Amino acid sequence: MENMTDADEVGIDLSAPVVSRHSVAVTASAETVWRILTDIDAWTTWLPEIPYARVETPGPLAPGSVFRWSAAGMEIESTILQVRPQERLVWRGYGDGPDGVLGVHVWALTPAGDGVEVSTEESFAGPPVDADSASFQEGLDTTLAMWLSRLRRTAEAVSAP
């Protein structure tokens, strides 16, 4: 993997056939949201549609860290591309192998009011997406909105007095 500085922005593939962007205001600290988001092994506790998630690379998340997970019936292997603690997390991964769905996912946290604005965006490409981009678009839009809602509820419940 190429060497990147913190200033380099890594993003989704804007030319991909499926691109989705969503955001939500969360009344919790960036630290709380970041902890929940980056505890990949615990995703299954707040994202019931993910039956399995595990970080394969020892140590803290860093560019090059690999995690495996399952979602929407796909087995996914993802590699972290960028980590800016409490600000930005980017990964890319293949669902069902290199001939499957290539996803690039960005999570961004921005201080806002009494909490944080959490934005997420993802692009999908690959032969299965080319064959049925409308279904993949609908599924991704629904999934990202649901994940943001669940992340908000989980973070706010943890932060409640």
TrEMBL record:
Per its UniProt entry, which superkingdom is the organism in? Bacteria
Gene3D superfamilies recorded for this chain? 3.30.530.20
UniProt cross-references to InterPro entries, sorted A to Z: Polyketide_cyclase/dehydratase (IPR019587), START-like_dom_sf (IPR023393)
Can you name this protein?
Answer: Uncharacterized conserved protein YndB, AHSA1/START domain
Q: Species name for this entry?
A: Micromonospora chokoriensis
